[in-house]
Automatic annotation (TrEMBL), chains A, B:
GO terms for molecular function: pyridoxal phosphate binding; transaminase activity. Keywords: Aminotransferase, Pyridoxal phosphate, Transferase. The lineage of its organism: Eukaryota, Fungi, Dikarya, Ascomycota, Pezizomycotina. Residues 108-464 form the Aminotransferase class I/classII large domain. Homodimer. This is Glutamate pyruvate transaminase. The keyword RNA-binding does not apply. Belongs to the class-I pyridoxal-phosphate-dependent aminotransferase family. Alanine aminotransferase subfamily. It comes from the Eukaryota. It comes from Emericellopsis cladophorae. Its cofactor is pyridoxal 5'-phosphate.
Length: 481, 481
């Protein structure tokens, strides 16, 4: 018998759930390996589509040329000694070379550890971006580079959660990083349900009653998480929703954690940052909102950047106690620093080529091409869903996902139960086996009891795969009717 | 009053100590900023030397050309469309292009998330390296890519530590990642002291008595950490020490965590991997050692690679229960994946150019140049220490550090106490203020009561800075005699 068994390891690690990369994802990798080895004859499909995870460059999204050209020089600074080859032989524009020089000047080698909270000059560049975006000052000292937003969330929750009684308000459905991390930390997730009937908006009364109930149970609720634009819902919050949340947080003295990694993936209306709205409220009603503690997170993984594999991101803290920040600094320093090339991608994301720069034209073309492509795919997928029996799906608003409700016949529920599965999981596994398309059951994100969903990205190119879903769904409904 | 205060945040985060990047490191960054701004007139030195952290490329170590050329193509695969420019204009060798193609074929885009435990082909390449290194089979399925070894240690300790009563045997002095992570996890660190009189070797009787004592106190001791070659000690363990530890671990049913990030930084004798020694013992005495669970860690940050900023590493598990491995897989998947370009550096580290390959000659020259440079600096620094009053330091054996004992006059102890500092901390702060050289006090790693040390890397080039230390030390001793 081994010393470590599933029964004696950390029970909180054991309890954590992370469906986005769970059984379905593992199964899809197995199918993929078969396809790669040319051994897919037995499978009813020729290729696997990972619609389970917002991983743009795994599918069709091409990296932005400017970013990658700069990165190639950062990786091999000796290229700067052959500037004429770069410019004439490889067609790099002069601003690519300039940016690489600037970054190398401030970073040193991308192979060296940086300061624990990130390269100072990159933090300054982020602060300037935030000032342009929000119209309010930002202080580089309150900015922390991270290995993707995931690591930022991990840091923040580790600091905030003091014991099992600490409660964190988390939207349901949610990106399971939150519930998984709270499990590992053995803290209390206080779920508040998003309102599907209002485009998955945040209803402040629902938030309040979840909060009141947890408080009545003795939970020390300290923070509220908001994902905007939403994952898995795709919802893009109107300013009014954000105001209500901030007002509520101020009154109840809650830390606000705004996960804004999809801030550029907005199709309907416009993105409102929590920081900008908070600062406006502070201006409008002096004194009333001064005490709000806000942490907002961003990432290079999403948007038109899509550099997931580089693990870059940052969070900004507003209104935090300096001693608490010192502990956050210490915590991140234990892992030394965020990947430095990822930090450089953050810098380029927040400070891309501008009108008039030699690389602007191509950058702009690529950027809007990706944006339009995403919008079109979202709409095409939405249209397909709207024609499927028992499937309901709101209009695409933002992020990279659609999260349709599925109404399955009772017989499907029985077949699922016979396999010890929830009906949505059963549906998704059958979908994968029949079509090679991997999506995530709604239960992976949380959903109201009795309702069923699945989440799919709209990143995969073409419409052929949408057709596969439509066909599968029809057959599934026939079979279990 | 803020919602989060230093008194109500996670007490285990607050309790964690991480001196390598603590007050001294922060102060040295401030000095550096002054120097950079040309405002160092008031300081008694012209430059700051970060000898506090094993960060080769921050100092003199140049990256290996082959690695960086390949990385430049991985970042910008469009370069492959101009192969003749790469080969003729930039002087890239054909094996650089081949490796980049091979990696891209298996990785896809370095901007995409990989599988949670790493790119399958890279895991296979690591397994082949382990087979060549150890002469025993390795299974890619038991290999997990990580964001530096730090993240590997974090994963393993998170899984192993079930509650405050879980004990982990940790060498003292140690790299503080271990004690800091155990603090955050609220688990019990069971210290065993290394034997300074025997070149900081591991004395099995000391280990046993630490273990017995903890057991008698009711601690559930589950694992033993070994850092070989050592940090901060530099000790490189003889095979006999490793055998004794494995034998002890087998008898007491302890998981072995072997931190082997300095495996190529060995000046005296040769590196023995725990895996190879374990497999030999298993062959020699069938049955007796079959149950040993071994996790061994490696990193791209150290050795002649020195790519700290890229955050790459891996760990291999031997003898772990598959259900436990499934939980480890799930845990790493919460953070999605290790930086993909860092994973590619791991592949290149374990599979560098070989004799006969076009890039071999340069690779070999750079590699041995770095190795020799480190050895020479280690010896020069050691010589300087041997001439300093009250300083004792064993011969350099490996890793990147010297860890001399310092014998300070009682008056220095009094002056330290007056500042609320330990004497070694006091010494290191004065050293930084007087010379711009940042080292870490022994208390940051743990040391026997009454003994004092500091740790310095021998990465900084030249001997001028060694002279600064010698001069400072003399004045310090005069002042407090
Ligand atoms: C809402 C949300 N937050 C955070 C993340 C983490 O992304 P990363 O760690 O790659 O920045 C994701 C990834 O899908 C996400 O959807
Ligand atoms: C003994 C030891 N283990 C692990 C690490 C972590 O290194 P990294 O996370 O960069 O691989 C270090 C870094 O100095 C170390 O000295």
């Amino acid at each position: 018998m081994t010393r470590l068994t599933v029964d004696n390891i950390n029970p909180h690690v054991r309890a954590a759930k992370y469906a986005v990369r769970g059984e379905l994802a593992v199964k899809s990798e197995e199918f993929k390996a078969l396809v790669a080895k040319g051994e897919a004859q037995s499978l009813p499909f020729d290729n696997v589509i990972n619609a389970n995870i917002g991983n743009p460059q795994q599918l069709d999204q091409k990296p932005i040329t400017f970013f990658r050209q700069v990165a190639s020089i950062l990786e091999n600074p000796q290229l700067l000694e052959k500037e004429e080859v770069l410019l004439n032989g490889l067609g790099y524009k002069s601003d690519v070379v300039d940016r690489a020089r600037w970054l190398l000047k401030h970073v040193g080698s991308v192979g060296a550890y940086s300061a624990s909270n990130g390269v100072p000059a990159i933090k300054e560049s982020i602060a300037k971006f935030l000032e342009r975006r929000d119209g309010f000052p930002a202080n580089p000292a309150n900015i922390y580079l991270s290995a993707g937003a995931s690591s930022g969330v991990n840091t923040l929750l580790h600091t905030i959660c003091a014991n099992p009684n600490t409660g964190i308000l988390v939207p349901i459905p949610q990106y399971p990083l939150y519930t998984a991390t709270l499990s590992v930390l053995d803290a209390t997730c206080v779920p508040y349900y998003l309102d599907e009937s209002k485009n998955w908006g945040t209803d402040i009364n629902t938030v309040r009653s979840a909060y009141e109930k947890a408080k009545a149970d003795g939970t020390d609720v300290r923070a509220i998480v908001i994902i905007n634009p939403g994952n898995p819902t795709g919802a893009s919050l109107p300013e009014e929703d954000i105001r209500q949340i901030l007002d509520f947080a101020a009154k109840e003295n809650l830390v606000v954690m705004a996960d804004e990694v999809y801030q550029t993936n907005v199709f309907v209306g416009k993105f409102h940052s929590f920081k900008a709205v908070l600062r406006r409220m502070q201006q409008e009603t002096p004194g009333q909102y001064d005490g709000v503690e806000l942490a907002s997170l961003h990432s290079i993984s999403k948007g038109m950047v899509g550099e997931c594999g580089h693990r870059g991101g940052y969070f900004e803290l507003c209104g935090f106690d300096p001693e608490v920040e010192a502990n956050i600094y210490k915590f991140v320093s234990i892992m030394l620093c965020a990947p430095v090339i990822g930090q450089c991608f953050v810098e380029m994301m927040v400070n891309p080529p501008r009108q008039g720069d030699p690389s602007f034209e191509l950058y702009d073309k690529e950027h809007s091409g990706i944006f339009e492509g995403l919008r079109q795919r979202a709409n095409a997928l939405h249209k397909a869903f709207s024609e499927m029996e028992g499937v309901q799906c709101g209009e695409p608003q933002g992020s990279m996902y659609l999260f349709p409700t599925i109404d399955l016949p009772p017989k499907a529920g029985e077949a699922a139960a016979a396999e010890g599965r929830s009906p949505d999981e059963f549906y998704c596994i059958r979908l994968l086996e029949a079509t090679g398309i991997c999506v995530v059951p709604g239960s992976g994100f949380g959903q109201k009891d009795g309702s069923l969903h699945f989440r799919t990205t709209f990143l995969a190119p073409g419409t052929e795969w949408t057709g596969r879903i439509v066909k599968f769904h029809k057959e599934f409904m026939e079979k279990y009717r």
